[in-house]
Amino acid sequence: MTGIEILDPGLEGLLSRVELPRRVIRIRRRGKYIIFELDRGFLVMHLRITGRLILGELRGPETRAILRFRGASLSFLDRRRMATAEFVEDISWLEAKLGPEPLGDLSWLPGALKRSRRPIKVWLLDQKNIAGIGNIYASEVLFVAGIDPRRPANSLSEEEAVRLSRAIREVLSEAIAHRGTTFSDYRDSSGDPGGYQEFLRVYCRAGKPCKRCGTPIERIELGGRGTFFCPRCQR
DNA sequence: TAACACCTGTTC
DNA sequence: GAACAGGTGTTA
């Protein structure tokens, strides 16, 4: 990393406290966080809802910073300015607040569900339980598993918990294969939208017929977030 | 654990 | 004018 141009004054304190250049050892993801491992310290980013990292130098009202590397630049854009980026010396705090990865081994999941009475949909969104499931995929996963999002986590049977584990893997793998879900803002690093919005089963389909049984999809609020489900297919 | 706060844009 | 939006951190 050879330089950073900070365009949003709100990022000053978080990004300017490191002397450049620094070597990037590798870039990885943990939950919804993007981690640049540097020869000393880390650059940790979270794109929240409308954040984007686009290759090249894009200057516009949404541009918050431009990261420069030897031979490449990354523009950090964010329409709602809720995304975060900061240099830190260590990232143990991140590991401490995130549950296991959703695409890893999930054999622990049935046991963990028994320890919570929260609605299963709210449980899935809590990054401390499992890291990386957002509001779209929580609804989608529960539809595929055939589970009512309002059910207390600890009311799921062993068999339902196993179905849920499989649904998590299936939905997230499919979504990744289609390069993500774009309603309005999400873009990949080339600026291209994802394609999974074409395949969503329940999310944002309130009133439309269930793709499996034809019953109108319902929208309710759980944990303050819009939640979509089929009252017939999900019990 | 729920409500609110953080932001700004879109849609009704 | 109000409601809604893919997320998370703080507060009550």
Task: Give keywords.
235 residues; alpha+beta; N-terminal domain of MutM-like DNA repair proteins; Helicase, Ruva Protein, domain 3; 2 domains; four-stranded antiparallel β-sheet; 6 helices; DNA-binding
Topology:
Elements: E1 3-6, H1 12-15, E2 24-30, E3 33-38, E4 42-46, E5 51-55, E6 63-69, E7 72-78, E8 84-88, H2 92-97, H3 109-113, H4 120-125, H5 135-145, H6 158-177, E9 218-222, E10 225-229
Antiparallel strand pairs: 1-6, 2-3, 3-4, 4-8, 5-7, 6-7, 9-10
Helix pairs in contact: 5-6
This protein binds a DNA duplex (12 and 12 nucleotides) through residues 32, 46-50, 78-84, 118, 122, 125, 127, 134-137, 181-186, 203, 223-226.
Structure notes:
The protein is an alpha+beta fold and 235 residues long. It folds into two domains: 3-97, MutM-like, N-terminal (N-terminal domain of MutM-like DNA repair proteins); 109-229, Helicase, Ruva Protein, domain 3 (Orthogonal Bundle), CATH 1.10.8.50. Helices cover 22% and strands 24% of the residues. The protein contains six helices and ten strands; from the N terminus they run βαβββββββαααααββ. The protein has helices at 12-15, 92-97, 109-113, 120-125, 135-145, 158-177, and strands at 3-6, 24-30, 33-38, 42-46, 51-55, 63-69, 72-78, 84-88, 218-222, 225-229. The strands form three sheets. The chain has a four-stranded antiparallel beta sheet with strand order 1-6-7-5, with no helix packed on it. It has a four-stranded antiparallel beta sheet with strand order 2-3-4-8. Strands 9-10 form a two-stranded antiparallel sheet. Helix 5 (135-145) packs across helix 6 (158-177). The radius of gyration is 20 Å and the shape is globular. The chain starts with a strand and ends in a 6-residue tail after the last strand. 29% of the residues are buried. The mean pLDDT is 96. The protein binds a DNA duplex (12 and 12 nucleotides) through residues 32, 46-50, 78-84, 118, 122, 125, 127, 134-137, 181-186, 203, 223-226.
